[in-house]
Amino acid sequence: MLCYECAIQGVRREAVGMCHHCSAGLCTEHARVESSPLKAERRNKTFGSVRWEVELAKPARQMLCAVCQSALHQEDADSALGRAVNERASLRPETRLERSAA
Ligand SMILES: [Zn+2]
Ligand SMILES: [Zn+2]
């Protein structure tokens, strides 16, 4: 298998793996390797319907292309805007975001 990112630039380079999300073949230059936290469900021994998720101590490994990595880690537009507004408000303590009784 060839690296997709290299192939679209007209270069033939052997892939070392595939993007976990889009399955594109990736060479060592284009593969982004990150840890992937694993979760497990726990159940209350007395009340079986009471369940919760825990993050396991050892994360797994995940290989991604640059496109999928940036897409999977993006914030939605609303939370990015909210963060920007809150950061601005915290920089200027005199600015308070209060609802005006119109
Ligand atoms: Zn490549
Ligand atoms: Zn991908």
What is the fold's blueprint, element by element?
Elements: H1 4-7, E1 17-18, E2 25-26, E3 32-36, E4 39-43, E5 51-55, E6 60-64, H2 66-72, H3 77-91
Antiparallel strand pairs: 1-2, 3-6, 4-5
Instruction: Give the DSSP E fraction (strand runs of 2 or more residues).
Output: 15-25%
The unreliable regions are: none
What is the number of helices?
A: 3
Mean pLDDT: 87
| Strands side by side in the biggest sheet | 1-2
The counted number of beta strands is 6
Q: Which kinds of small molecule does this entry bind, naming each only once? A: zinc ion
- End-to-end Cα distance, whole Å, is 64 Å
Strand/helix succession? HEEEEEEHH
What count of structural domains?
A: 1
> How can the largest sheet be summarized?
2 strands, antiparallel
Q: Judging from the principal axes of the Cα atoms, what is the shape? A: flat
Q: What level of helicity do the residues show?
A: 25-40%
Which structural class best describes the helix and strand composition?
alpha+beta
- Integer-rounded radius of gyration: 22 Å
Question: What are the salient characteristics of this protein?
Answer:
102 residues, alpha+beta, two-stranded antiparallel ribbon, 3 helices, 25% helix, 24% strand, flat, binds zinc ion
